[in-house]
Structure formats: structure tokens, C-alpha cells
Amino acid sequence: MARYTEAKCKLCRREGMKLFLKGERCYTDRCAIERRPYGPGQHGRRRGRKPSDYKLQLREKQKVRSIYGLLERQFRNYFTEAERRTGVTGSNLFTLLEKRLDNVVYRMGFAPSRPAARQLVRHKHVTVNGDTCDIPSYSVRVGQVISVREKSRNIPMVVAALKDTTKRDRLPFVDVDDKKMEGRLVQEPQMSDLPIPIQENLIVELYSKV
Q: Scanning 27, 30, 97, 144, which has its CA 20 to 30 A from the CA of 83?
């Protein structure tokens, strides 16, 4: 399956903000945005003209794609589903994204980053209501219990990630028992819960032009 293989820190520098794609490194002074707070490439330092509306919309969409680690087709499918549902399209979109299994595992603190959470899921270290699930895009439902398999609870990455949860607050839509290494989705994720500012209206405007 196709995936992004270049330096993840370039994505943060391109957006001019931390997207927390590298786990522990993002909380230290080794973070690329701390050392080089300008865009990547030879023209990264150059001050450009005032961005057009299209550029603002495109950059916002690319930022969100980078955060959740999705390719364009995957992201577009989520937008189509959000548009089909009743309610506000932008809010529906982020509810769908936040309910991805790899994202829920990350939000619960079982992995230091979403790519690491995706790896845990792919390698069958995670269960949903007691059944192994190796599909990162699986949509978690409210009330379902997500846990690390008993045989996988000594994985150094998982142990270290749980110790480092003090560095980032858990969001209110998950309830976690660190000792049991399990958690539950207690409510639908809301836009107001997200720690990174996102202008979902720009994404809706971008796709409405197509």
C-alpha cells in the first residue's frame, strides 16, 4: 500500500506548526520546528506574497492529511461520507477521522504517535471488545473497549508511551485504565476537543469547488 516515506519533520515545517508526528521527539528541543522554524527547501526562508484563498484551503487540507497520515483518496472518501451524513460536514469529517482505530490507540496513549499506533494495530497487538483487529481504519463505536493484547503488554514502546502520557492531556472522549492497558470510547469526538487548531470550513470550501 502507498504511504508517505519522506521526513515527517518536513511536514511540520511546511505548515509552520507542530503536528506531533514523531512522538517523543516533538516534546524536546530536537524538534525540527524548534531548530528551523521556516519552510523546508532552498526557498524556505523566503518571505512570499500574501497567500491566495485557494492556497490557504489547500494547506489546511494537506495539514489535516499529514496529521492523520492519509493519502488523498482516503481523505476524499472520508469527506464524501461526512457530506452524506446529516449535520455539519466539517464536524462529521473530524468525528470520522478521530474514530479511526489507529487514532484512538494514539489518543489513549498506547503509542507515542499515530504511525506507531498504526504499526501496533497492523501487527495484531490491539483488540476491540476482546477480538484482535488489524485494520487501522476500523471505525470505533462509542462503548467499545480497546486494549493491548496481554502478550503484547511488555513491548517497550507501549510501556514508554504510557509513562509519557503526562506530557499530553488525554481528550475527554476516551477513558483509559493504564494498569489494565485498556480504554473505552465514551462519547463522539467533538471539534472543540482537538488540541491542534483546525479550520474545517477551509477544507469544505476547497472540496465544494470540485
A: 144
